[in-house]
Design a protein that fits this description.
alpha+beta; 5-stranded mixed beta sheet; 9 helices; 5 strands; globular
Length: 233
């Protein structure tokens, strides 16, 4: 691992196998050594997102998990307006993230602003596809799970939203690379998504747990707000 970290520090591009070894190493630290992971995150999270379009969570549960929790428990939204924040009212796994975020006034203001924009864009926030039953399914065309660096991390982030049942890559965008990740409504139980790394863009399908046009459109709005934010932890 030292040789891989050395290359990362020197700005030398990692091969697909080296990149996967690094991701496995980070996952192991997150699960087994939180203090070591905190050091790793501080040193490499921004670099991995900048150079490899890889989302590295600061905590085991963070922004996307909070979003998913609020979507399933919209009555908890008002708790985020209270000062001090009643941490004990949230799931234990979310508390380290919330404690970190609300310790900093700037971070807490950003989060509250984003949640207000979510309420404006999706006023009927409780009208979303129901939580999935069982594990999410990933399907990668052309064996591009490991070939396209950052894609697996992107899908794992999406998997934190319980209304998604399957993620399936479909094709590459051959003409113009998309400027950012985004989602579009296709039909009642399916959205289209675009993932972009530094070289290319990949179009994929997001399958939902119900077939309902209104719920699907709301899910699309939620994902576009969640993924265009600057919150990376």
């Amino acid at each position: 691992m030292r040789s891989i970290l050395r290359k990362l520090n020197q700005g030398i591009e990692l091969g697909a196998e080296e990149y996967q070894q690094l991701m496995d190493y980070a996952s192991g630290l997150l699960l087994n050594s939180p203090e070591s992971y905190a050091v790793f995150y501080k040193q490499y999270a921004r670099r991995l997102y900048r150079d490899y379009y890889t989302f590295l969570p600061r905590f085991q549960q963070g922004w996307d998990d909070l979003m998913n929790y609020l979507l399933e428990h919209p009555s908890a939204l008002h708790l985020l307006e209270l000062d001090p924040l009643p941490l004990q009212e949230f799931p234990e796994a979310l508390q380290p993230y919330l404690q970190y975020t609300f310790r900093d006034q700037g971070n807490s203001q950003v989060l509250r602003k984003l949640l207000k924009s979510l309420n404006r864009a999706v006023p009927d926030i409780n009208v979303l596809p129901r939580p999935r039953q069982g594990e999410i399914v990933y399907k990668y065309e052309n064996d591009n799970r490991g070939k396209e660096i950052g894609l697996k991390s992107h899908f794992e982030r999406l998997a934190r939203y319980s209304f998604i049942t399957r993620l399936q890559t479909y094709r590459y965008l051959t003409r113009n690379k998309a400027a950012m990740d985004k989602f579009e409504y296709i039909d009642g139980d399916r959205l289209g998504g675009i993932f972009t790394n530094k070289e290319k863009s990949i179009y994929y399908f997001v399958f939902l747990s119900e077939n309902d046009p209104v719920k699907a459109q709301n899910a699309c709005r939620v994902l576009n707000i969640a993924f265009k934010t600057g919150i990376r932890h």
